Amino acid sequence: LIAAYQGPILQIHGVSDEVIPVRSGEQLHLAATSKQKELLTPDILGHNQPFPKSIWTKSGRWIEEISSRGE
């Protein structure tokens, strides 16, 4: 299903996730065919932890970039 979606995709998957291995997120990212995709893999982020400020900053920049394209 993700291969058929062509809209913007921002994935955030912590390397320290003890529930779902980061490799699963990487595989999902590879399966996505959207030209507007980004995968952020912060080392310190586990499962259900609050995002660090750096992730909020990167996410905001990504959203602004996608929004400015008008796509």
Helix share, percent: 25-40%
- Low-confidence spans: pLDDT under 50, at least 5 residues? none
- List the total number of helices: 2
Oligomer: single chain
Hey, roughly how much beta strand do the residues contain? 5-15%
Shape: flat
Strand order of the largest sheet: 1-2
Number of strands: 2
How would a crystallographer describe the biggest sheet? Answer: 2 strands, parallel
What is the alpha-carbon Rg in Å? Answer: 13 Å
Task: Give a topology summary.
Elements lengths: L8 E4 L9 H10 L5 E4 L12 H17 L2
Polypeptide structure, described:
By secondary structure, the protein is of the alpha+beta class. Helix content is 38%, strand content 11%. The chain contains 2 helices and 2 strands; from the N terminus they run βαβα. It has helices at residues 22-31, 53-69, and strands spanning 9-12, 37-40. A two-stranded parallel sheet has the order 1-2. It starts with 8 loop residues before the first strand and ends with a helix. The model has no long low-confidence stretch (mean pLDDT 94).
